[in-house]
Design goal:
By secondary structure, the protein is of the alpha+beta class. The chain is built from 11 helices and 17 strands. A 9-stranded mixed beta sheet has the order 6-7-8-5-1-4-3-2-9. A hairpin with a 6-residue loop joins β12 and β13. The longest helix is centred in the last third of the chain and has 15 residues. The N terminus is likely disordered.
């Protein structure tokens, strides 16, 4: 494992990122879905998201319908096309439901566009001013791997509910939250030998730095392997691990994703909680399915990670994984795919000082994923 943290320290990693593109955080994530109304009901019920805003026929939008959900600092937008010739239809036909937009909050969307495109960023959306009675928003954007795009959102002069064109969305049905706080990181899967291309793209175009790298010796089982590099922006608020397949005896989870998604894209969204035990219990009670972790994992985990605050038997009952680095420890668990295609899933993570990504759990995690692949007949 090539770990820059170990040699430079975490602060110097962030300093190494050339911060000509200061990012304030993740503004929203937009998914293109076949039925936004039904998808919104699922994410409210199962994941505890709250309704926030709506755009559609009633607000004068004719080509799509969008529901905006919120939980603490996470905003999720679900968008469905309203006519057959929409490019959104093409996206759904190719990928199924999936993440189209990772929107990044900036102070100056015009400058963000200029800085990234002059460094080789592939233009997606020129700086565009959107206004209503609540003020103005400026958005711009560039392409990244597959059909995924980054939208830069400047909203310092806007006081509305979400964006111009949206109205408040309120219904009597709002299940309580499950304790999700913010997006910790988002993982992208790319094709064979494409990881370094996109690592270089993020470094050159967006000024990101390589926080940590994992090769096929770090992430492998008896049957499959993959490689991954974690890219971070200058202040460490935005982290994008990028995975590619590696040679193995059988088809890896990355290859399965690429086959069913129809190319590169967002594989999973890691969302943070302050109490993973309570969060997972609540999500399980609402029907969210998590990967099975073999009971033998817990026989030796405390030997590896040392003393923790949580009861190990409770973690075992819920299937929560534990790992430690020099800064502390983390707890994590992964849902099964939340779609019929075995593509997008979520990670629930609680950090107790640790800044790493659970290297010590890779073997157990990927063996669990392989077990699911075997059930699907895609291993």
């Amino acid at each position: 494992m090539k770990n820059i943290e170990a040699t430079l320290g975490i602060e110097k990693i962030f300093d190494a990122a050339e911060d000509f593109l200061p990012l304030l955080g993740t503004d929203y994530v937009e998914m293109y879905v076949g039925n936004a109304k039904q998808a919104a009901h699922y994410y409210k019920t199962a994941f505890g998201f709250q309704e926030l805003a709506y755009a559609g026929l009633e607000t004068g939008v004719k080509d799509r319908t969008s529901y905006v959900l919120v939980q603490d600092r996470i905003r999720l937008v679900l968008t469905t096309p309203m006519n057959a010739d929409s490019p959104i239809v093409e996206h759904i036909n190719k990928h199924g439901d999936g993440v189209k937009v990772v929107a990044l909050w900036v102070d100056d969307a015009t400058k963000a566009y200029e800085e990234t495109t002059k460094r080789g960023g592939i233009p997606f959306m020129e700086p565009t001013v959107e206004e209503d009675e609540h003020g103005r928003v400026v958005r711009s954007g560039i392409h990244t791997y597959g059909d995924t795009v980054h939208i830069f959102v400047e909203r310092k002069d806007y006081k509305g509910i979400f964006l111009p064109g949206y109205q408040a969305w309120k219904t009597p049905y709002n299940p309580t939250t499950v304790g999700l706080k913010y997006i910790d990181h988002m993982v992208g899967n790319v094709g064979w030998n494409e990881m370094n291309t996109w690592v270089e793209y993020y470094a050159k175009v967006m000024g990101f730095a390589n926080l940590v790298s994992f090769d096929d010796k770090d992430i492998s089982t008896e049957y499959t392997a993959l490689m991954s590099k974690v890219m971070t922006n200058g202040n460490g608020r935005v982290k994008f691990p990028i995975n590619e397949p590696a040679e193995g005896r059988k088809k890896s989870q990355i290859e399965e994703y690429l086959d069913f998604y129809g190319g590169a894209g967002i594989q999973h969204i890691a969302v943070a909680t302050d109490d993973i035990v309570s969060t997972v219990k609540e999500m399980q009670s609402r029907g969210v399915e998590f990967l099975f972790v073999p009971a033998t994992y817990y026989d030796t985990v405390l030997d590896r990670v040392g003393e923790i605050d949580e009861e190990i038997l409770q973690l075992k009952e819920l299937g929560i994984l534990v790992d430690r680095d020099d800064e502390g420890y983390l707890l994590q668990i992964f849902t099964k795919p939340v779609l019929d295609r075995p593509t997008l899933f979520f990670e629930i993570i609680q950090r107790k000082g640790a800044q790493s990504f659970g290297k010590g759990n890779f073997k157990a995690l990927f063996e669990s994923i392989e077990a699911e692949q075997a059930r699907r007949g895609t291993l």
